[in-house]
Amino acid sequence: MKSAAMQLLRLRRFILLLSAHVILGPGIVYAQVQSVEVLFYNVENLFDTIDDPKTDDAEFLPEGKYKWSPERYLTKLDQLGRVISGDGKVPLPALVGLAEIENCRVLKDLTNTDWLKSGRYGIVQYDSPDERGIDVALLYRADLFRVLYSRPLAVKPPWDLEFRSRDILYVQGLLGTDTLHLYISHWPSRRGGMEASEPFRLLAAGVLRSHIDSVSAHFTQFNAIVMGDLNDEPDNRSVKEVLNARIPGTPCPEGSHACLFNLSATFPAGEGSYYYWRDKKWNVLDHIIVTAPLLDTGSALHMVPGSFGAVKEPWMLKEENGMMIPLASFARDYEGGFSDHLPMRVTLRTDSLNKLNSDVQILTGGLPDGIPSGKTTKRCLFRFRKK
């Protein structure tokens, strides 16, 4: 009797496993994951200690201005991993946009820290023409997000052919069964003065807006997130007029295919993501901007209301002039902190998020008809694979 009962139990387990395989397919494993976190973080000069003869990275070498030793580099990686992981919380963010990273090597080192290695993050990063060699990148959990296509969008002013800045990173992928478009940006700085440098940011905004308009025309529902250090505030011309990113709750223009809403425009007065110590005030330079469907809680994929904000844990901060501000790697001297920017985060919710099996091939390539392919450039498309 006991043997027969055991056989019956095993048979029932086999039927359950077979049913899951048939219903969900061999490459998909259902998981009780209904919400995921998206993070953007300007990590403040994440350089390795190796000289790159193609870029101006001399300041971040062991003998350079910042005495960038292996010990300081490892400290930086550990500090950033702590922030991105939320001091070791579970689950880890599904998508992490980064600015001011030097290359693919530092991204692999970052994702291999004790804080992040359980996330088995994939990487999308292209080497841009920036003089210092700093780029933007996307980290993604390969069990939750499938990359379909990526390309860099160049920012090249026709009036200054010597100008070199970061590309904008575009990634199209699947979060569960929903298509999601991601844009990670680090627009030209205000070096030389805000007014003199503004045309370069207006150009970057135009490049981004043009690509959004082109791609969105191919989708009946365009789910997109723009995240980045735009070096401009929500009410500056580049963001408000050229990119046309509006305050959430304001109506979309009639016939607009991709109406953008700037979550960073909701920061209370006197708060922000970057503390400018010379003026002793907070600036809102880091943005998360979403398209209209992601604000609709009736959509299959949408933002969790009230989930947007800056990550501002006490252990990430220091006191200066009675104000709690970011504990950076460098201020007037080496501080061994995290970054001079605060990360931005938002939570997405979906009706049914399927967890992708790690054996599924995720870099499939391909684009909808009519969308031009990207330029050929050195790129880092890294995907964690099971041993």
Compact description:
19% of the residues lie in helices and 30% in strands. By secondary structure, it is an alpha+beta fold.
By CATH's scheme, which homologous superfamily applies?
A: Endonuclease/exonuclease/phosphatase
User: Can you write the helix and strand succession as a string?
Assistant: HEHEHEEEEEHEHEEEEEEEEEEE
Beta content comes to 25-35%
Number of strands: 19
CATH class: Alpha Beta
Helical proportion? Answer: 10-25%
Q: Span between N and C termini?
A: 42 Å
Q: What is the number of independent domains?
A: 1
CATH architecture annotation: 4-Layer Sandwich
Low-confidence residue ranges: 4-31, 357-377
Rounded radius of gyration (Å): 22 Å
Morphology call: globular
Category by helix and strand content: alpha+beta
Mean pLDDT: 86
Contiguous helical run count = 5
Major sheet, described briefly?
Answer: 8 strands, mixed
CATH overall fold name? Deoxyribonuclease I, Chain A
